[in-house]
């Protein structure tokens, strides 16, 4: 089953091995809508070794690629006009230096609007805007048939310490809210 809302692992914007986002809930605020699109991509890249060789020997005529000869058509079904409110907290990991504090990353994101890496929704082509929300969650705009539904398996995280194993959980939307289990919960499975 296709899981409409964003994946939990897509929400981190602070790149620090000493910090970890713990996602508790995802509030889906706008109706879930899909759009199909197709795009053209170039099928390969010029190898770095070829560029180095051309730079050393001046053989730049070997580098050009003809897009028409190398075009691949890609199709995707994407979400449109999404709006989520994520209830999350930062925690220190075992990799955090002694004396590391949680208030500094929050200040960087909230006051300066900076992120280590621009968060995205699925792929880098779909950047996400992140801002701090304080106060109660706003009321969702979901129609009746979207307020409560089984969304199937949702990516929770990728365990880089365990050969990049993906971890999933059964996502259920209840009155517009997905409760996210802890990473170690029994409901989470590879």
Low-confidence stretches: 8-12
Task: Report the average pLDDT across residues.
Answer: 77
Largest sheet: 5 strands, antiparallel
**Total of domains:** 2
- Classified by CATH, the class of the largest domain is Alpha Beta
Number of strands: 7
SSE arrangement, N to C: EEHEEHHEEE
- CATH-derived topology of the largest domain: Alpha-Beta Plaits
In the sheet with the most strands, the strands line up as: 4-1-7-6-5
Rg for CA atoms: 21 Å
| Span between termini | 16 Å
Helical content stands at 10-25%
**Per CATH, which architecture of the largest domain?**
2-Layer Sandwich
How would you name the oligomeric state of the polypeptide chains in this document?
A: single chain
Shape: extended
In DSSP terms (H or I, runs of 4 or more residues), the helix count works out at: 3
Tell me the structural class: mainly beta
Q: What percent strand?
A: 25-35%
Please give the structural blueprint.
Layout: E1 19-28, E2 34-42, H1 48-57, E3 71-79, E4 84-92, H2 103-112, H3 144-147, E5 149-159, E6 165-174, E7 177-179
Antiparallel strand pairs: 1-4, 1-7, 2-3, 5-6, 6-7
Describe this structure in words.
With 190 residues, this protein is mainly β. 13% of the residues lie in helices and 32% in strands. It has 2 domains: 8-33 and 82-179, Alpha-Beta Plaits (2-Layer Sandwich); 37-74, no CATH class. It contains 3 helices and 7 strands. The strands form 2 sheets. The protein has a 5-stranded antiparallel sheet. Strands 2-3 form a two-stranded antiparallel sheet. β5 (149-159) and β6 form a beta hairpin. It is extended and about 60 Å long. Residues 8-12 have low confidence and may be disordered.
């Amino acid at each position: 089953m296709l899981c409409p809302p964003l994946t939990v692992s897509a929400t981190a914007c602070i790149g620090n091995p000493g910090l970890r986002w713990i996602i508790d809930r995802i509030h889906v605020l706008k109706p879930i809508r899909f759009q199909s699109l197709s795009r053209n991509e170039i099928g390969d890249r010029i190898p770095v070794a070829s560029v180095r060789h051309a730079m050393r020997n001046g053989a730049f005529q070997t580098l050009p690629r003809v897009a028409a000869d190398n075009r691949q058509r890609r199709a995707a079904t994407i979400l449109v006009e999404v709006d989520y409110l994520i209830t999350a907290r930062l925690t220190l990991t075992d990799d955090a230096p002694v004396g590391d504090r949680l208030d500094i990353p929050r200040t960087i994101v909230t006051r300066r609007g900076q992120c280590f890496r621009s968060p995205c929704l699925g792929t880098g082509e779909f950047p996400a805007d992140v801002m701090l929300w304080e106060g109660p969650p706003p009321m969702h705009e979901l129609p009746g048939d979207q307020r409560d539904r089984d969304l199937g398996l949702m990516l929770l995280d990728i365990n880089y310490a365990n050969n990049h194993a993906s971890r999933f959980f059964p996502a259920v939307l209840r009155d517009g809210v997905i409760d996210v289990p802890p990473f170690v919960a029994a409901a989470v499975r590879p």
